[in-house]
């Protein structure tokens, strides 16, 4: 029982701190302190230290002896690296493991993306849209049986979520384009035409990268974030 409670506290500390980093409650450059985290989360130091060690391995914080703990910054270079990895992983998975995709889920996403209107939750709630978009791409990645590849992808997904909270809202035009691009990926998947599906996926990732850069630069101009 003691071991289980200790493990749960480690998980709780890790998930709580990670969520605060991802949502930018702990913004890039923020200094973290073990003692303050212990008081804030009402968790002892051992689970906190374990959580910080994991977060350092994931690149979310930087621990420097005698200097302290800092939430890592994000840069334009990070955007490039994230999309470089996505363009390597996602098309590869779709090409080689697309046959493992759940057809019912594909049809479900097709229905969602093709039955949109200006009053739908996607257009009223950006978080709902981002969650839907993440779920769609995660569905593709989950088709891959290679656990190491999926674990590596999870790391860049976390950084992508940080950008999402840092850069703010997405335009309705981009929402509509994203829905259309997703449909363009789904149709050849349902037809088992993996070459076309990969082509459409690569186009979508290029457009998403372009949109992300625009959001980043707009945020800089608005003094919302710094890079």
UniProtKB/TrEMBL annotation:
The keyword Hydrolase does not apply. Keywords: DNA-binding, Transcription, Transcription regulation. Coiled coil: none annotated. SUPFAM superfamilies: GntR ligand-binding domain-like, Winged helix' DNA-binding domain. The lineage of its organism: Bacteria, Bacillati, Bacillota, Clostridia, Lachnospirales. CDD domains: WHTH_GntR. InterPro entries: GntR_C, TF_FadR/GntR_C, Tscrpt_reg_HTH_GntR, WH-like_DNA-bd_sf, WH_DNA-bd_sf. This is HTH gntR-type domain-containing protein. GO terms for molecular function: DNA binding; DNA-binding transcription factor activity. It comes from the Bacteria. Residues 7-74 form the HTH gntR-type domain.
